[in-house]
Batch of 2 targets.
Target 1
Amino acid sequence: MREGLRARGHIHGGGEVTRAFVSGNEALALGVRLAAPKVVCAYPITPQTTVVERLSEMVADGSLNAEFIYAESEHSAMSCAIGASAAGARAFTATSSQGLLYMAECLPYAAGGRFPIVMMNANRSVALPWNIYGDQRDSISQLDCGWIQAYAQDAQEALDLALMSYRIAERPDVSTPFMINLDGFSLTHACEAVDVPSPEQARGFLPPYEPEDAMDFGRPRNMGFSAGPEHNAFFKYREHLGILRARDAAAEAEEEFGRAFGRRYTGLVEEYMCGDADFVLITLGSVAGACRDAADRMRGEGVRAGVLRIRYMRPFPSAEIAEAVSGAEAVAVLEKDVSFGGTGTVFANVNSALYSAGARIPSSNYIGGLGGAPVSEGDACEIFRRMASGATGVRFIGMGGA
Amino acid sequence: MDVVWIGRGGQGAFTAAKVLGAAYSMREGGGYALAFPSFGPERRGAPVRAFTKLSEKPVSNRCEVSRGDYAVYLDETLFPGGSAAGAPIVSSREAVEGAIAIDARGIGEGIFGSPIVNTAMLGALARVWGGVSLDDVCEGIERVMAERHWERNKEAAGAAYDAAGDSL
C-alpha cells in the first residue's frame, strides 16, 4: 500500500473505522475502493491523476477486486464505463478539464442509456490559455448532459460521496450517472484527516449492484437503441424525471449514511447562518470555507451574513435556495465559471430559481478563481460589503464589472 | 497556527508539511490540520513552498498564506532575512542573524549519508513551537512515510529536536 494511505483503526459505532491523513484525491480513491466497482477505466490527467494511480495500485495489490482498464483516451474511458455498466458491472472513471470535454460526446450516451456510472471530475480550467489549475468551467459546461453533479468541499465529503453516489445513481427509479466534482489542487491535492469506514460497514450501506436489465445473452433484448420523433421525447421526459428523483434519493442515502457512519449531510444545499441572514453568499465547492470565515467576520462587524453552499448543481436545488434566502435583503453568487457573453451559469440558475419562486431579491454575481486564482476570505467580505451597499450585476473579482 | 515551508523541489517540503499535519491531527484528541503544496510545475531544485494550517476548529479556508507563524527554510540560500514568511527557522551550518539556525544538513549527512533536511527541520520546529511533541512527530512520520523511511527520519527529527533545544 502506498505511503500516506496507511491507516490505523479505532472502534466507532460497532465497526472498525480507520483514520488516514490523505489528499482529497486519495480520500476519493479510498471511498471508491469501499464502493467496490467491478470496472475502473480511466485516462490520467492533471489534477485527477493520483485518483487513477491509487486505484491502479489497489487493483494491483488485490485490495480492490476490479478490472482496471487503462484506456487510450477519455472518450474511450467513458465508452468502456458505458459498456461495463450495460453488462451489469458497477463502473468508475475519473477525469478533468480537457479530458471531460473530450468525453463530452459520450456523456449524454451514459445518461440517456440510464447507466449509473460514477465519475470523479477534478475541476480544472479549460484552455486557452493553457492552465492546469482549478476552476469549474469544465463541469459547469456539462450541466445539460443529463448527469447528476455534486461538488465536495473537503476530503471527507469526497470519500463519503464516493459511497453515497452509487446508492443514489443506482436507485432503480433514478438510474442516472453521477459526477463527483473536487476542486483541482485546493481539494484534490490538499491533505487532511479523514475517517474511513471498514469494508464491512461499506457493504452494509451499499449492497452489490444487481440491475434487472443488464446485458444477458440468455435473455437478449435491445439496448442503446435509436428512437425517432414519435418516441424520443418520452425517453427524454423519463430521463428528466429520473434525475429529479435524485433529490429524494440523496436525502434517503444521507439519512442511511448518518445512521451507519454518524456523519450528517444536508441534501442539495448546506446552509450556514442563513436563518436570520440579511445577506446570503451562494457558492459551491471548497471555496465555501473561506466564505464561512468571511461570514463570521462580517457578523463580528454587525452585518447579518450567511452562506449557502450548493452541494448539487443537478438536480438543481431551486426550492431549497428560494427557501433558504426567503428572508434575505440580497443574495450574491460566487462561482468559478462564466458563460461568456452571458453571466455566471450558477448565477443564471439561481436567478431562475428565485424568480420562479416569486422571490424578488436583488442578486449579484462574482466570477472568481478562474485558472486557479485564489479567492480569499477578504474577497468574500468584499462581496458582503457590496451586497450591503446595494450592488447588483456581474463582476470579475479583482477586475471590474461586465 | 500556520507554517510556511520553503525549500527547493526534491527537498521534501510538502512531505514535512504533511507529517506536521498528521502529527497534530492524528493524535488522540488532536485538532485539525490542512497540508498542501504551492501548486505549480514541480522542478527539482526550483524554489517551492508548502503550507501546514493547524487549528482547534476545522480548517475551512484553503488559501495559501503569505506569512505564517513560523517559516521553515530548508535551504539557507532562500532565507530573505527581514522579510521572512514567519518566525524563521533556517537550515544552516552557520549562525543566521534574526533566525534560529539548525545544522540539518549535518544531521542528514550523519544519518542518511546525504543532505536530507526536511524531517530534521520538522523536529526543530516541534521543539521551538512546542505545540507537538517529538512523539507526535514520530507518529506523523509513520502515518505519512513508507515504513522503510521511519527509523532514520525519526532519528533525524530527534537529533534536530535536541539541537534546537540547545539553541533556545
Target 2
Amino acid sequence: MKKKIYIVSFILIALYGGWYGFDHFNTKKIDFNTDVRPILNKNCLSCHGGVKQLGDLSFLFIDEAVKKKNESGQRIIVPGNAQKSVFIKRILSTDTEVRMPPEKDQLSQGDIDILVKWIDQGAKYDTHWAYKPINRTPKLPNIDKQIASTNIDQFVIKELEKKGLKPSVEAEKSSLIRRLCLDLTGLPPSIDEINEFMADTSEQAYENLVDRQLASPHFGERWASMWLDLARYADSNGYQKDKIRKEIWRYRDWVINAFNNDMPFDEFTIEQLAGDLLENPSYDQILATAFHRNTMTNDEGGTDDEEYRVAAVIDRLNTTFEVWQGTTMSCVQCHSHPYDPIKHDEFYELYGYFNNTKDNDNDKDSPLKVLYSPYQNKLKSALENEVNTLKEKGDTLSNEYQKKVAEFLAIEPGKVQVMVENPPDSSRTTRVFIKGNWLSHGDTVLPRTPAFLPAMNPDYPSNRLGLAKWLVDGKNPLTSRVIVNRFWEQLFGNGLVMTLGDFGTQGNKPTNKALLDYLAFQFEETYSWSMKSILKEIVLSSTYKQSSAVNPELLKVDPYNYLLARGPRHRLSAETIRDQALVISGLYNPKVYGPSVKPYQPEGVWNVIRHVDQWINSTTDDQYRRGVYTFWRRVSPYPSMISFDAPSREVCVSRRIRTNTPLQALVTMNDPVYVEASEALARRMMTEGGSDTQSQIKYGFKLAVMRDPDIRRLNELINLYDSTLGKYNSSDQNIQKGKISENTNAFKTMSLIANVILNLDEVIMKT
Amino acid sequence: MKIIKELHDQHQNMLNRRHFLKQGTLGIGAVALGSLMGCNPSINKQIITGSDNNYQPFVAKAKRIIFLHMAGAPSQLELFDYKPLLQKLDGKLCPDSLLAGKRFAFIQGVPEMLGPQFSFKQYGQSGTWVSDLLPNFSTVVDDVCFLKAMHTDEFNHAPAQLFMHTGSPRIGRPGFGSWVIYGLGSLNENLPGFVVLVSGESAPSGGKSLWGSGFLPSHYQGVELRSKGDPVLYVNNPKDISRDLRKDAIATINKINQQEYEDAGDPETLARIKQYELAFKMQMTVPEATDIESEPDYIKEMYGIQPGEVSFANNCLLARRLAERDVRFIQLYHRGWDSHGSNDFESLHGGFVERCNEVDKAMTALIVDLKQRGMLEDTLVVWGGEFGRTPMQENRGGISNKFKGRDHHGEAFTMWMTGGGIKTGMTFGETDEIGYSGISGRVHIHDLQATILNQLGIDHEQLTYHFQGRDFRLTDVAGNVVKDVLA
C-alpha cells in the first residue's frame, strides 16, 4: 500500500513539477501570515492544531512542525524544496486514503500554489501580526497635507488611494455637532449649544466644542456604558436567586469618575485588577477591584460552592484576556487552543493569578468592604470644609450649619464586593483540570504568563498586581491595540479589527493595520494612556468629520465602510436612545452618580424569582435619569434595553450586535416612557416653539435633529397634523381652546407628531 | 474569490442584517422578517453553515414543537416509573452502594428509602403503568412515547434547566428555540418564531436566560407572551391613539424615512421602514392569536382554562392556537414541582398533587386537540422536568424531612414525547428495580436535544455558530439521535 502511494505521489509531483516549473517565473513573495496561515487554519488545524495533534504534528507551533519528520524519517517540510516535502506530497496525492485533508476535495490550485511557493521560498514563518511589538517609530504615509490634514487621515487616505477612492466632504455642521455630542457624552446638544456652535465661525469652533464635551461630567457616563459591558456589571448576582447587589453601584460610579478624571488607562487597569495589592491602597483603589467581583454567585440551595467559585475564577481569567488582550481563552480551559499558540497548561498558569482570593461563592457574597463612592468622598470632604468654615465663624447655630451637617451625615457608605487576597500561608494550590473538568485534577502549576507573549518583568510580584502591570508596561503588544480598537468601534461602528474580542488568528485582520498601530502608539506613548487625548485626536480627524451619506457605487465597493470613505452612521445604543428621548422632551434629570434607579417598567416583568426584591417604579425625578443608572438585573434586564441589544451582563460582552426589529418600533412608539416623552416634547413644542403650528413642528424637529426640516419632511408632518386634528375633532366634541391642557385635541395631535419625530430613522441613528 | 466569499460570509454573523438585504431571494420583506422572527428558510443554508459547504436541512417530520417543561422536576416515581420493590424497601436505610461517590443537593449521611406514594394501574393497549394522579393522561398513553431512562449531568435547578434548554449548565448560551429559529427561520410573518409561556409559582429557576439568545444576535431570543397585561410588551397603543391614527403615524414615519434613504442612501433605513410595517401587523395579529376566550365553550372546558388567570391550562390552549398560526418553537414552563418534603408546598402529598391536578387535564387536552385537528403529525410535543427525584426520602442536615419528599436526582427520570414523527404506544429505556439508575436505553440531555433537532430537520452537528474563537452548537460536543423512538 505504502509503496503504491509513493509511486502515485511521485508521478504526480513530477507532473506538478513540470507545471510548476512553467509558472516559476511568477516569483511573488509569499507572506506566511497573510497567505499561508489562513490555508493552514482552514484545512489543517482541526487535526494538526491545538486540540488534536494527529501524528504528533501541529501546524500551530510552526517552528516545531518545520523540524518534524514522519514515521519513515522523511521531513514533513523541507525548506527550499516543496517536491521533497511530505506535506506537499500528501496534499497532491490522488489516493483519497492518503490525500490531505482527508475526506475532502483536493485543495484549490491557488492554495496549493501558495503552499508550494512558500516552501520553495524557504518555508519562512512569522509571528501572528498581533503578537509582534508595536512599531515605536511609526512612519506617516507621505500624502499631501491639503488632502490629508491629520495623521489619521494620512493613513486612511493612503488605503483609499489604493482603491481609487476619495474621502467624502465634511458633514453639515448640524450633523457634526449631533454626532460629536452623542459620541462623547451620549446626549444630544441643547438648542443653545447648537446656536452657539453655528454662530462660531472661528477655526477653533469645532475643537472648542470637542473640549467642552470632553470636560462634561456626562462624558464619563457615556463611556462607562461601554466599559460596564466588559466588566459584566449588574445590580444582581446571577443564577437562580439572582440576589440583589445593593451597594455595587459604587463600582459603577468609580468607572464614571475614572473616565471623567481621565484616569490614565494603565492606572485604570492596575486598580481594577489589583488595586487591593497596591501599597497602602486608597478606598477608591479597593473599590476598583469590584471589577472582578462582578462575576456571578450561585445561591441556589444544594449547589456546590467550590464548583461556582471555580466558575467565577475561570470567568475572571477569560474576561481579563478578552478585555485587555483580545484573546479567546475559553477554549484553553479544556485543551490547547485550536488556532492560537496557547497550551492547555498555560491556561492554568494564568488561572493561578486569580485563584487566590477569599471569595468562595458563599451566600453572603463576601468578602465585602464598607466603602463610599468616589463622588460621595468628594461630597463629604466638600461639606466637611464648609462645616469647618462655619464652625470657625462660630456659626454652629445657624440653619445653614445644621443643613450642612445633616447633608454630611446623610452620605452613607455600603458594603461592596471587593477582591481580597489570601495570605501566603493559606494560599490555594492551582492544578490543571484535565479536559477542563474541575473535579479531575492534573499537575500543580505556578502562576506564569503564556509563552506567546513577552515574559513578565522578573521584578513584578507573581500575583494579580504583577499580571496587571505586565498588561500595561509597554511591552505587551496587545493591550493598546485592543483598547484603542474598542474606542474606534464606539465612534465608527466597526473596529479596525472587526472582532473586538479576538485578535488571534481566527479573528479578522485589521482593515488598516498601520493606522491601528499608529493609534496604539499614540495612546500608549504620546498620550501616556490618556483616554480623552486619544479620543480627541480621533474626533478631530477629517475622517471622523466626513458626511455619512453614501452613493450606490461606494456602497457596492465598501458596504460596511471599512475603508472609511464616508463618516460613521449606525443605530444609537440602547442607553443613548433612551437618554436622547429624555433630553429632547425636556424630561431629563441631569443628576450624576448615585444608587441605581428603577424607571417605569410594566407590572409582572420582574416576577421572575420568588422572595427576592421587587421592582417599584420610581415616582421621583429619578425615573428621568440616564440609562446607565437603570437598575440592571441579570435574569430580568430592563425590557426596552434588551430590545435595543443591550446584553444581560452575565458575562463579558465585547460588542453589541445591532439589530433592527419590530419590537424596537413598539418600544419607541408605545412604551410609556416614550409616550410620556412624546407628550413632554409636544408641550415643549407648543410653549417654546412659537405661536403657529408650523413653527412648533419645526422647533420639535430641530430639537431632535439639530436642523430645520426641509420642505418635504415638514409637509409630511403638517399633513399628519391636519388629518389627525381633523379626526380628533370629528370623533370627539371635547375641543378646548386657549391654554395647553392634556385634553385638548391640539395637544393630543401634537403628541402624535412628537412621537413620530422620536421614531424617525435620523433620530434613532447616529448620522 | 473564495477568500472574499469567506470573508463576506463571516460578516453576516458579526454585523447587522444588511447582508441579507442583498442576499435574500424573497427581497426586503423576507429579510426584515428575519430580524424578528428568525431568518427565512430560503436563506437559512447560509446561516447554518456560515461558510460554503453544502449542508441543507433535511425534510423535517415536525414543523413545530411544543415543549412542556415541568420546572422544579416532578418525581418520576410517583407518576410513570412504577417500582413495587421500592415499596418493600420503604423506611429502610439506604444501602451504601447507592451513596458511595455520589453528590447530592441536600441528602446527607444515610437517608431512608421511600416507597411510591400513590397507586399505579396499567392503561391502554400498551399496558403502560401510570399513577392515579393523572386520570386524564392515562387515557392517552397509547399516543405517546415514554423515555424512562433520561439522565443529566446537573442536579441543581438553574444549571439543569439551562442544560436542558441551552445545552450548557452555565449562563450565556442561546436557548433551544433561538437555535432552531437561527437554523430554520420562522414559518410565520406576523408572530415571533420562538414564544415562551410561563405559569406556576413564578418563572423557572434558570430565569430568562433559558430563552435568551446568548451569543446569537438578540432577535433570536424567545418572546414571552404574558398572560396579564400586554401579551407582547408595548404591543398596544396608548389610549388616545386609535389603530387608524397609528396607521397614519407609521405612514408618515415611513415617508420621511424614505426621504432620508434618498438623501443618505443607507439600506438600513429601508430595513427600518419594513420593521415599522411589521410592528403594525403584529399589533393586530398578537391580540387575535392570544385571545383564548374566543374559543368555543367545549374547547375551553376540555382544557379547563381559567379566564383572566395565569394558568398552565390557558397556556396549553394558547400553545395550540400559536401552533395553528405556525409559531415554530412554543416553550411552556410550569413551576412548582420541587417536592423535597421540606414543607407542605414542596411535598409529594401537598404541592405535588396540586401540580398534577393543574397539568393533567390540560396536557391531555392538548394531545387530543392537536390529534383531532390533524396537527399532531407535524407537531412535536415534549414533556418533562430538568431531572428526576431520588428513591430516598430527603434528609436535609441528616434528618428526614417533615413531609414526604425526594431529593434532586440526575441519573434517572422520565420524559414523554408525542407527534412529529415519534413512535407511539411505546416505552424506551428502563431503570433498575428502584428507579435509581437507567439500565437500558439511557438517553442523555444532549441525545434528547439531538433527537428533537433531528425531527425538526436539523443535523445537530451541523448547526453551529462561531463565537469567541470556536464553533458552538446546542449539543456541545456530544449527543446521538435516539433512533429507536423514531417512527
